[in-house]
Amino acid sequence: MGKxxxxxxxxxxxxxxxSFFAGIGGFDLAFEKHGFEPGFYCEKDDFCRSVLKRNWPAxxxxxxxxxxxxxxxxxxxxxxxxxxxxxxxxxxxPHGKRNGLKGSQSGLFYTFLELLSVHKPPVVLLENVAGLLxxxxxxxxNALVGSLTKLGYGxxxxxxxARYFGAPQSRPRVFICxxxxxxxxxxxxxxxDEIAMKPKNERRGFMVESKCSESGISVPQVSFxxxxxxxxxxxxDWARSYVTYPDAVRRLTPLECERLQGLPENWTLPDxxxxxxxxxxxxxxxxxxxxxxxxxxxxxxxxxxxxxxxTPEEGAKGARKLxxxxxxxxxxxxxxxxxxxxxxxxxxxxxxxxxxxxxAYKEWVVTAAVSSSxxxxxxxxxxxxxxxxxxxxxYFLSANAAQGILRRVDKLGRHLFPPLDAVLRxxxxxxxxxxxxxxxxxxxxxxxxxxxx
Length: 453
Description:
The protein is an alpha+beta fold.
């Protein structure tokens, strides 16, 4: 795992994947499992670049996508991009104000599109927050889908939730597969031959208790979605998962967050030449992990893409002779839903309604409410990723922190995991304690982590 790759311009018989907005390499880990080699990165963040360097030292990293020369990008079967979600995510904009694809960060998608228009690789796989579907009343997603179909791609999308793929966190993300000239293959990358049933009682997993008799730890069966701000407390504390002890509560550690994302343990430690700031790197780790693609979900999609790439298209020539509207009708009834409407894909739409799945090709589009789970969900429990041994005191909440969480929760009328609520209220009435540990202690722990790998 890791430590592989080729430099741009070299030849290699293995299939390759180029990663844009690569982060810490979640897509690459997923595609490696299916025989692909990372061939090229584009990642601007210094910390993430160092993590990539440590794990794939031979792979070139282009840095800032705005400075990339299209001619420098090597050939690859698949391009992936988890383009920035800051202007799309409600987690970052609690008051609902989002800049969408016009924002300075998420708008970098158009820079990626310019590079894509030069190379037109066979397959493109994108991932983003589900809020992309309704950003600016759907106009942003309309622009994204339309820009890909104009390049000759068949485009399929589907909201997939990590909790059904063996990662015990509720993490709905929209995956978009664009397949050059083939809406059929795009759909096969995200949908199975059998139409999956929609999960029921999803809220239950956040309230049902799992308990470790040896440590006394109590957690819900499923974690809320971890985010780039998992290392601190915010106004969204009601939508966070904490680890509850009989008389204490703590936040998740970076190691537990790595496990929730399906990353190898200590994956987010940087390369040896990375200059560690005085404040340490925990904030960087939480941020990078929270922004990463969940590897088990990406691996499921990567496996399907790999299978389609290796399988001759039966009847493909015949399908291509059909009008594009009929092609979409066929794939929609087979893979998405028995109830659907084929509609014109409007070139410029100020408002569009996009459901959780769909497919578009040329001037037509189908969208339908689909399941966020595969046909056979992979079970998992949050307790399986929790550290049972002694955890450093800096992860535990002070009385002041407990009071702040409860104040925000009560103000919003939210309900916490019952064992968590009970212990937080006991802590809140105890004597206040310092919320943060000295930076020297943080550095000692970091030194131990680095020495252990």
